Amino acid sequence: MTQPEPAQPRHTADTITDDALTALYEQLDAAQQTELARQLAGCDKAFASATLRAARASARAELAEAALDAVRTIAQRMEDWDSDIPSTRRWVTELRAALAALDAHTTPTETT
């Protein structure tokens, strides 16, 4: 199987002219710029996607915190209402335990 002849003869170090070398460098620069632009476009898409996911996660976290605050308020009201009723005490105890478990796993730690 034979390979097709190149459109232009291949240059060697002895035969290349300054103009041909300049043209090759210009082609190389253009190819590198095209590749850089392609990679940058991919990075932009990935960053936009990650930013959107982070915003959605933040919104969900805020809603979850609001729901937890509502549960804490309910637990406090139940406790204030009548903690002498055994079923109320049991529910308050269970709510407080569930909230404490959530707090233990979701409280952000400080990083330095």
Q: Can you walk through the features of this model?
A:
It is a single chain. Helices cover 77% and strands 0% of the residues. The chain is an all-alpha fold and 112 residues long. α1 (18-82) packs antiparallel against α2 (86-106). 1% of the residues are buried. The mean pLDDT is 83.
Cα distance, first to last residue? 64 Å
Mean pLDDT: 83
Number of strands: 0
**What value does the Rg take, in angstroms?**
34 Å
Described by strand count, sense and barrel closure, the largest sheet is: none
Strand content is under 5%
Question: What is the 3D shape?
Answer: rod-shaped
Q: Outline the low-pLDDT stretches.
A: none
**Secondary structural class:** mainly alpha
- Give the SSE string: HH
Helical percent range? over 70%
* Helix count from the secondary structure assignment: 2
